[in-house]
Task: structure prediction
Amino acid sequence: MTRELFSKSVHSIRQISSDYASQRGWYRFLGNKKTTEQSIIKEITKQCYLSVKGRVVLSIQDTSEINLYNHKNRIQIDDSIGTTTSSDFGLGFFVHPSFVVDAQCGFPIGFSDIKVWNRSNGKTTKYEREYKKLPIEQKESYKWIESSIKSKESLAEASTVIIVQDREGDIYDQFAIVPDAKTHLLIRSKSDRMLAEGIKLSDKLAACEVAGTYSINIPGDKRKKQTKRTAILSVRFCPIKLKRPGSASKNLKGEIELYSVEAKEINAESDQVINWKILTTLPVTTIEEALCILEWYSWRWIIEEIFRILKEEGYNIEASELESAKSIKKLSLLMLATITKLLQMRYCYSIPEGETLESIMCFTEEQQECLEHQCVTLEGKTEKLKNPYPINSLARATWVIARLGGWKGYKSERSPGITTLWMGLRRFYDIYEGWALSKDVYSP
Result:
C-alpha cells in the first residue's frame, strides 16, 4: 500500500487504487479496527530504529493541524475528531512527528515518533479548566516531552541523539527530565527567561562579546509579506543557569545548567528581524560549536516541508473524501512514511560525486526501465543537458523525476526542491501506467 501511495502521490483512494479490488482493500485496511494508529507508528519507527546504529542524529519535532472543517457535513463526528486552533472554523486533529536526520550529513532517516491526537468537541477553555494549575502530564504541551521520551527509545542504537524543537518545546520540565549521557536538547527560547543569578536571559547574552557572524538564506513568503534575502546574524554564546519557574513541578531541581546561543540579525531592512535565542544541553565554548548549534536549528525547515507536502502542496490530506477521521489519521501516517522517500530522493541528488544510492530503494526494475526511456526524451543535445549520473542510481532517477516536475536540468540551477520532485513523481506515474499498458498490449 505504501508503494501505491508513493507512486500515485494523491489523497484520493479512488485515484490511488489501480482497480476496484485494490480500492476495496484500501477501505478495509483503513477501516479495520485491528489496524490501529499505534501499530502503523510502530512499523514506521521500527525502520528508524534499524537505521540509526552508531550515528549522531537529530530528532526534529513540530506540530501541525489537519483541518477537515470544509467537509464537516460528510465527516463522522465522534471521539476521533475535535476542535483545532483555527478559531470557529477548526475541525480535525493534530500530528506531531519527530523526524530524524543524520547530524553529520543531513541524510533523511525516518520518524522516531509520531503523535496523533484530537481535542474533544466540547472542550472547555483554559480558564475554565484552570490550565496553569494542571500538572504537565495533563497539558497538551506534554506532547513535546512525551515524544522526546519515545524518541529516546526508538533511537536507542544511535551514538548521540539531539532533539530539536521550536519555542513551544521550551518547557523547564523537559530540560529536567529528558537529557541523559547521550541525549541532548536544542530548543529555541520561548520567552526572556529569568536566570538563577537574578537577571534576564537577554541581558546575560547582551553582556557577551560578539563571537562571530552567521549567514542564512531566508526564502520569500507572500503570506508573511516576507521577501527573499540573505540574513547576516551576530553570534553570542554563554553558559547559563535556568531558574525553576513557579509553573514547573516542585519535585524538579531548582536550577539547570545549560548553554545559550544567540543569533541576532544585523543591518536588517525587513520588519521581521531574526533573533534566535537557543537553549541547549550541548556544551558551547567556541564559535565553531555555536555555529554548529545554529546550523542544526536551521534544519527545522525540513519538518515544515513535510507538512507542506502532506497538505496543500502535495497529498492534500485535508481534501480526503474519507468519512472517518480515524481512517484519515491512518492515511496521514502512511503518507508521512512515503514522504521520507521523497526526501531521500532529493538528498541523493546533493551527495558528492562518487557516492551513490541505488534507485531500487524507490523504484521497481520495470519503473527504472520506463525512467530510462523518459531520460532519452528529456536529455538535451549538449553535455550540460545530459543526465550525468550512472544507470540504476537513485540520483539518475531523481534527475528524471525533477525534469518531469519542471526543473531545467542545469547544474548552475539550484537543486530540485521537494515540491518539484512531488510534481514530477505524479507526472511520471501517469506516464508509467500508459507505458506499462502499451507493453502489455503489444507484447507477443
